[in-house]
Amino acid sequence: GYLVQNGPLPFASDYQKEKSGTSLHWLGMTFRMLPGDFEMKSRYGLGVDWAIPYEDMNDDYEQAEFELGVAGEVEDQTFHGIRFREGYVYPMHSIPMSYQDRWIGEHLGDDTVRLGDDEFDLEVRALQVARNSIPNPAYDGGKGYRPVGAVGAPGIGERCEGNASCIPICPVQAKWNAGKTWASIPGGHVEVRTQTLVTKVLLSGDRKQVVGLQVQPYGPTETPAAGAPQVVTAQVYVVATHAIEAAKLLLASDAANSSDQLGRNLMDHPYLLTWGLAPENIGAFRGPSLTSTFPAFLDGGFRSERAAWRVDVDNWGWSFAAFSPGSDIETKVRGKNLYGKRLRDELADELPRQMRFGFLVEQLPEPSNRVTIDQRYLGPMGVPRPVISYDVGAYSRKGMVAAREFTRQVYERLNVSERTAYSASDPGYMQFEHEALSFHGAGHVVGTHRLGESAETSVTDTYLRSWDHENLFVVGCGSMPTIGTSNPSLTMAALVYRSTRGILSNLGKL
User: Fold this and answer.
1) pLDDT of 136 over the 90 cut
2) What is the distance between the alpha carbons of residues 502 and 499, in angstroms, rounded to a whole number?
3) CA distances for 114 relative to 119, 310, 409, 428, 433, angstroms
4) pLDDT interval class at 189 (50, 70, 90)
5) Which of 200, 237, 299, 362 could share a disulfide with 36, CB 3.0–4.6 Å?
6) Pairing state of beta strands 387-390 and 4-8?
7) H or E element, residue 60
8) pTM for the whole thing?
9) Residue 324: its pLDDT value, please?
């Protein structure tokens, strides 16, 4: 009820406003983007190219992988042109692939699938995650890496315990969250003002400088507290308030928008689910939610025609897709009148056989997918709510159709009985070509204040400084010109390190 949805389709991702934000709820997926993601226009004639050369991101990716504590093996991500510094290793070894991952890999072997005119291999590889694993003694020139445990209890959470509860929250904090970084900041260096909302960015008369932030304290019911708004001043200002909120604040301030790109090019990964029942126990509902993927589908010449996607080989059965196991119990009790031993036997047989694929489908930057504001829609603080215009274009829909065909071919090879079912009442339901499709939001909110090489086509320069205001930096996933198929968290963290150099330079500290 917070986002104002203009349609034609709902923007299906949301976020939460609190210290450490949605990092408390994330799955911990930390992949580097592909060179092709940075060169969409020059390689495939679609979208835009990044103004940052791919090679320039390497050092920042390494810093981000240290801060987030990434577990992985370099050899598992050496595909589609990804390049690492010679001798580099991740801070920790990979989280082991699940029994289901290994079962799928063994049964598919050297098999392939054909999508259109292209043939793809079905190799299964482990994923990189910000989740504590076995430290790699070769990290940092042989110094190794020390995992960061739970905030306030550093001896807890130094290893992933396979609790099958990465989302909504890791019970031992083996997964990185922003609270860990907050806890590492020396006392006295940062003042946190809770229950205080920035309502406007204040500009100088010539509009070249930010001169202050107007802030309004609020009470427990999110209504303005007594007293006039306050003004906070500084030398350099950083707006790092999420792709949607940053755009909303700057639009409300009539700031940083000489390019008319502010709020535009809103992207997410439309998330398509398919599911089926395996012929034998594959160990569903055990361990971390996600430990592997099929990398072949992330990039290729097909991207000039349809979207790429990443396949999530999910370990938690039909939980997200069909609300299992609760829905299974209800169906068997209410629909089949099962109870006692017969109920337990059927659940014990079927639940461990549930297989689910999730497809994070690439979306192109489209100016019409955007965040705007409208004074008719205000929140309880009297501040505009974000007005969202959103659609999933033909490029992404073609990718979804290919994902459905992938599912059919792979399930047939694995002898999995497909149970995928979409309802016309689903908010993300649509039809395209011969397929019924339904998508969810992935929570990967990208675009709206993209970086670029000129003030005419972008909101910030490559160090995330506003083209319009010399002492304003706009930092976050909104900076990303394209989304590719990787979860954006690692790239966002890498861009933070890059922007920090810009901030220090602005302050004369670099």
Assistant:
1) yes
2) 5
3) 4, 16, 8, 27, 19
4) confident
5) 299
6) parallel
7) helix 58-68
8) 0.95
9) 95
For every residue of 457-482, DSSP letters joined together read T-SB-TTSBBSS-TTEEE-SGGG-S-
Let me know: does 269 contact 440? Beta carbons within 8 Å. Answer: no
Question: Distance between CA atoms of 155 and 281, rounded to whole angstroms?
Answer: 35
Task: Name residue, tokens 């160990």.
Answer: 283
SS3 (DSSP) at 445? coil
β-pair type (4-8, 230-232): unpaired
Query: Who contacts 12 (Cβ-Cβ below 8 Å, separation ≥6)?
Result: 268, 270, 427, 428, 439, 440, 441
Which three-class secondary structure state does DSSP give residue 392?
Answer: coil
Contact 256, 474 (CB under 8 A): yes
H or E segment to which residue 199 belongs: strand 196-203
Here the contacts of 202-211 (C-beta below 8 Å, separation 24 or greater) are 202/231, 202/253, 203/253, 203/254, 203/255, 203/469, 207/468, 207/469, 208/468, 208/469, 208/470, 209/469, 209/470, 209/471, 210/237, 210/255, 210/469, 210/471, 210/472
For the chain, helix (H) and strand (E) counts, in that order, are 12, 18
Q: How far apart are CA 219 and CA 454, in angstroms?
A: 42
Cα pseudo-dihedral 481, 427, 439, 276, rounded to 10: 170
Closest CA to 383 of 196, 193, 258: 196
The tokens of 121 are what? 């291999």
CB 84 within 8 A of CB 61: no
Q: Per the structure block, which two tokens stand in for 238?
A: 């950083």
Backbone phi, psi, residue 107, to 5°:
-75, -25
Would you place residue 16 in the very low, low, confident or very high pLDDT band (cuts 50, 70, 90)?
A: confident
Instruction: Report yes or no: 59 and 501 within 8 Å, Cβ to Cβ.
Output: no
What angle, 0 to 180 degrees and rounded to 10, lies between the N-to-C axes of helices 58-68 and 489-506? 110
Q: Spell out where 302-442 has E strands.
A: 309-314, 354-361, 370-372, 387-390, 417-418, 429-432, 435-440
Q: Read off the tokens for 17.
A: 């406003």
> Alpha helix locations (H) across 156-276?
178-184, 243-252
Strands laid side by side in the 196-203 sheet: 196-203, 210-217, 230-232
> Residue 168, preceding bond cis, omega within 30 degrees?
yes
Tokens of 179: 């609270």
What are the Cα distances from residue 340, in Å, to 285, 336, 337, 347, 457? 22, 13, 10, 11, 65
- pLDDT tens per residue across span 370-409: 999 999 999 888 899 999 999 999 999 999 999 999 999 9
| Residue with the two structure tokens 């100088």 | 204
Lowest mean pLDDT among 14-23, 247-256, 366-375: 14-23
Instruction: Let me know: does 314 contact 322? Beta carbons within 8 Å.
Output: no
